[in-house]
Amino acid sequence: MHKRWSQGWYVVGLLVTLIACGDDEGGGDAAGSGGSGGRSSAGAGGTSGSGVSGTGAGGGAAGRGTGMQGQVCPAAEPANGEACTAARGDCAFGERKCDCVNDLNIWACWSAADCPAAAPAEQSACGPIGMECEYQGGSDCECTAEGWDCGNQFCPATEPAAASACEGGDGECTYGTRTCDCDSSLWACWNPADCPATPPAEDTTCPVDGMICPYMGGQCECEAEGWNCSRGVMQDEADAGA
DSSP alpha helices (H): ranges in the chain? Predict the structure, then answer.
């Protein structure tokens, strides 16, 4: 009797062991399938170039396409105005340089010999658009659709109307005894003789928004809230009244 019970429990234990092994094998297959899915997902990310960590060849090609590694240069010098995709850097072809102009996405090619001998006048005619020239004194000029842009103030041939639109730059414009300055993209013109003889009090009423008057130690500018004088001017005024 006891022997038959022992044999019976042995059979039951064997069946339980077989079932458990079967479950482990099924789980392994499921885990293996999951692993394959993970590899497939990583491969797709590399191809699209959206993942920085992709190591596939497709991921590298996509990285170059975004321009993160610099401007893609053609084998031969492109024609001016030919379409391109702008990125960082220029392309050199012998003594000539080509740049894919931002916003326009067209090639501009030139050599140093094409640059004017001296810094050109602001907004004077130029070509091709995108050409860049450097001059002594730190002047950098670029050819734009409006002409040369060297960062200086463009002065119209005649005195502009007050509060008419303008593009700001370094410097002011002189018309006889009058001075004009592009202030906040609007022209302000005045006669320096109209400046107060002594530095005006801060925030007091002033005649022309944008008007600038020089004084010892700095300058005062007429703003919407009134006169605004630099700290040096205020300090000199305090010293003078002491």
Answer: 2-48, 57-65, 231-241
Q: Which two tokens stand for residue 229?
A: 């004088």
Rounded-to-integer distance, Cα 213 and Cα 196, Å = 8
| DSSP designation for 72 | P
Cα distance between residue 237 and residue 204, in whole Å: 15
80: tokens are 């001016």
Question: 139: which 2 tokens?
Answer: 């002047």
> Is the confidence at residue 90, as pLDDT, over 60?
yes
Counting residues of the chain whose pLDDT is more than 90, the rounded percentage is 63
Rounded Cα gap, residues 173 and 72, in angstroms: 42
Token representation of residue 119: 């810094």
Domain ranges of the chain: 67-152, 173-241
CA–CA gap between residue 36 and residue 18 (Å, rounded): 27
Residue 43 φ then ψ, to 5° = -65, -40
Kindly report the pTM of this predicted structure: 0.58
Where does the chain show beta strands of DSSP type E? 91-93, 96-100, 107-111, 132-135, 139-144, 147-149, 173-175, 178-183, 186-190, 212-215, 218-223, 226-229
Instruction: Give the chain's mean pLDDT.
Output: 77
Phi and psi of 85, rounded to 5°?
-115, 115
